[in-house]
Specification:
By secondary structure, the chain is of the alpha/beta class. It is 29% helix and 23% strand. Helix 6 links the parallel strand 5 and strand 6. The protein binds ligand LLP.
Length: 386
């Protein structure tokens, strides 16, 4: 994956930094776009996965819409040229200020997550003499079979309107002239690798679409969210199988001729295109453990500490030692959870070796923090290397 040219370039740079492989990013985006277009499906990029302008510009060029979860994301999407008519806005706690700004921008759709939120959007839209387009985000109680911290579609999760509140939604909609119901929305979780989960989702989508149509609401948009996982163990096997993913929805959704199917993909589009590049500060060889202490920590990549997430770790310096050694690869932060991997098999490693933590394009850089007064780190793109 990393060439001699990359290595030479990296060795002169201050570490840590996020490295973006733009050729891979473009390839992934185009593969997804082609697969979606073949079914006439619409893709909104879930901006929360990565909002580095280097990444967003590529995504905007491909023509995807934007899936936003805050006023900041809505503003950034519009500023970078995503069409307002392709911006969707979800979130369980939209503030009045955020709703007002989105109304001023005439976004495509609010994905509404509670009965009360429907009334609030109606009131705020009325004050502006506008009609807000809305989709009801439904919690379908479908198990995504992923890590509990990134599961969103079960009854115990805070997201969406529960299935037993559909009638309450219908009642508010019927009394709200400043709301235009356009469809239904779902998002059941992230890093989903078992595609059968999506078959179960399709069954629930069909049921809810029928419920709304039976109650006199035309369902024009079926938004099935995102969640498609990537293969963290094989970062070089890079592009997810978008064709197989979309085919499930084409096969199992009962799509009427007037209905559009929308997706909100994040991780699958950007996850494999970045690595966190770090330098070894110290090697500590103990009786029970060998530690590699990096200059990157949980402040730059929080996923392992937060979700016990696996990221492949590679020593990308040319080998100068002998054989393979097992190391716990840790960061410099004063927390015991600041660990990227335990018992990781690596070539014998030395101070100043370069370490790549792979598959960090999604929920990496964007979840960084300034804990311990750490600085924001640089972005390096493959196009900087000539
Ligand atoms: N739509 C909605 C409403 C969402 O909440 C999310 C992600 C997505 C779409 C995009 O999901 P994706 O295709 O990226 O799986 N920080 C966690 C992941 C949190 C996902 C939050 N919602 C992680 O590092 O694994």
């Amino acid at each position: 994956m990393f060439s001699d040219k990359d290595r030479a370039h990296f060795s002169n740079l201050e570490t840590p930094f996020y490295y973006y492989d733009l050729a891979l990013l473009k390839n992934t985006l185009n593969t997804c776009k082609t697969a979606a277009d073949s079914h006439n499906f619409h893709v909104h990029y879930a901006m929360k996965a990565n909002f580095n302008p280097v990444v967003l510009q590529q995504i905007q060029k491909v023509g995807f819409g934007a899936d936003c979860v805050s006023g900041g994301e809505v503003a950034k999407a519009i500023e970078l040229g995503f069409g307002k008519d392709k911006v969707v806005f979800a979130g369980v706690g939209k503030s009045d200020k955020e709703i007002n700004n989105a109304l001023d921008n005439d976004i495509f759709c609010f994905n509404v997550e509670s009965v009360q939120e429907l009334s609030v959007i109606n009131e705020l839209a009325e004050k502006k003499q506008k009609v807000a387009k809305i989709a009801i985000r439904i919690n379908p109680n479908v198990d995504a079979h992923t890590h509990a911290n990134i599961t969103t579609g079960l009854d115990e999760n805070k997201f969406g309107v529960n299935s037993w509140d559909m009638q309450a939604c219908a009642d508010v909609l019927n009394l709200s002239p400043n709301l235009e119901f356009i469809g239904i929305h779902f998002h059941i979780g992230s890093q989903i690798t078992n595609l059968d989960v999506y078959k179960n989702l399709c069954i629930r989508v069909n049921e809810f679409a029928k419920w709304f149509e039976d109650h006199g609401f035309k369902v024009k948009v079926l938004n099935v969210g995102g969640g498609l996982g990537i293969d963290y163990h094989n970062p070089n096997q890079q592009i997810p199988n978008f064709e197989a993913y979309f085919k499930i929805f084409a096969d199992f959704l009962e799509i009427k001729p007037y209905q559009e199917v929308h997706f909100e993909l994040g991780r699958a589009l950007v996850g494999q295109s970045a690595s966190l590049i770090s330098r070894v500060l110290y090697v500590k060889n103990g009786k029970k453990k060998n530690f590699i202490i990096l200059d990157a920590g949980m402040t730059e990549l929080m996923r392992p500490a937060l979700y016990q997430a696996y990221h492949k770790i590679e020593n990308i310096s040319l080998p100068t030692g002998e054989g393979i050694v097992k190391y716990d690869v840790v960061g410099p932060i004063c927390e015991s959870t600041d660990c990227f991997g335990k018992e990781v098999e690596l070539q014998q490693t030395f101070r100043n070796d370069l370490i790549a933590i792979r598959s960090t394009g999604a929920y990496g850089e964007v979840m960084a923090s300034h804990y311990n007064l750490r600085e924001t780190i640089a972005t390096v793109s493959s196009e900087d290397i000539v």
